[in-house]
User: What shape does this take?
Amino acid sequence: MGESVFTYIGAIVGHGEGMIIGHLILVAVIVLLLAKSATKSLKAVPSGSQNILEAYLGGVISMGRDVIGEANARKYLPLVATVGLFIFVSNVIGIIPGFESPTSNINVTLPLAIMVFVYYNYEGIRAQGLVHYFAHFAGPVKLLAPLMFPIEIVSHISRIISLSFRLFGNIKGDDLFLWVLLMLVPYFAPLPAYLLLTFSALLQTFVFMILIYVYLAGAVALEEHDNKAHA
Assistant: This one.
């Protein structure tokens, strides 16, 4: 199905890995241009792209504040905001005829999920220590530890599958939906669908971002409770 759909980059480099890499480079260039445009002439009273990007960063902090607290929301802002911007641009670019969403390919969403998995576990180990962090996997009842520990390990590993396949599946489904519409009624009927697809792209970005905060909160939560107990 994917090989029969025309894309500008695919027409140049062919379908397969070259097309995926080409769209990834395009997304990276767009994100870098947005960042450069927003920061090239910073003003005390923001306007234009600076205003949009500052509103976005404020929204990301607000999103994480209730999940992980103000300080940690700001601490992990670079990761969450960068991933969110990359995913949103990747999702939206597939709505434009002649382009394909990089996030509609599992080879893109899986590395993103693995990166999040490695990072939040690293933060948990760094915050709590190796023994304390993995002791949490055993649960509060020592008698049930041999049962709980493997269940927790499987549960954490399944997050990689959940993160990657949720994003991949939804965006791939949106792309297929748009392709069918463009083949059946290529001029007017798809127009209302663009609003729906844009909302879906935004929703999937939000879900991925909030889950990063949730996983980070679970990884560093014990240290936060310990600090409150000693205060």
Q: What stands out?
A: The CA atoms of residues 91 and 201 lie 5 Å apart.
